[in-house]
Each structure stands twice: as structure tokens, then as C-alpha cells.
Amino acid sequence: MSSIDKIEVDISVELGAANMPIHHLLRMGRGAVIELDTTENDPMRIHANGRLVAQGEVRVEDGQLRVIVIEKVARGA
């Protein structure tokens, strides 16, 4: 096994974000809707180990949800 196979990377995909007071969050019930700072046409943000590395979009292919990388983010960003 090569050493690169042992590297762990935490990948997360962010659809959008919202700021709200904790008391609003605690009062939310099942089915509540949280408005995000993005629209359905905005690219998603892809993070590796908490660092923004790319932007992407969601696609459904063969019944599976996929995240497609559409743009790599510059290293200094």
C-alpha cells in the first residue's frame, strides 16, 4: 500500500449558509425551512479539511445524487 493511500481528507459540500440566533433554531419544528444565502443556480462550495478547494453542482444520474466539480478554487483564496 502506498503512503498516499493512507492520507485522510474530510470532504464537505456546502449548499449555502444562514445566520440566526440560537433561540430561533431551538424553536424550529419538524419541516421548518431555513433560508440560505444562495439560490438554486449558485454553485456549491466544496471544502477539503475545512478549506475551500472547488465549486460544484448537484446532478442526478442513474438515480444517484452526484456532486460535479465545475471550478477549482485558486490556492491563495
TrEMBL record:
Gene Ontology CC terms: bacterial-type flagellum basal body; plasma membrane
Gene3D superfamilies according to UniProt: SpoA-like (2.30.330.10)
UniProt KW keywords: Cell membrane, Chemotaxis, Flagellar rotation, Membrane
GO MF annotation: an example: cytoskeletal motor activity
Family that this chain belongs to: Belongs to the FliN/MopA/SpaO family.
Domain Flagellar motor switch protein FliN-like C-terminal: start-end pairs: 3-73
Topology with respect to the bilayer: Peripheral membrane protein
Gene source species: Devosia pacifica
Cellular localization per UniProt: Cell membrane
GO biological process terms on file: bacterial-type flagellum-dependent cell motility; chemotaxis
A Pfam family per the record: FliMN_C
Name this protein carries in UniProt: Flagellar motor switch protein FliN
PANTHER family associated with the record: FLAGELLAR MOTOR SWITCH PROTEIN FLIN, PTHR43484
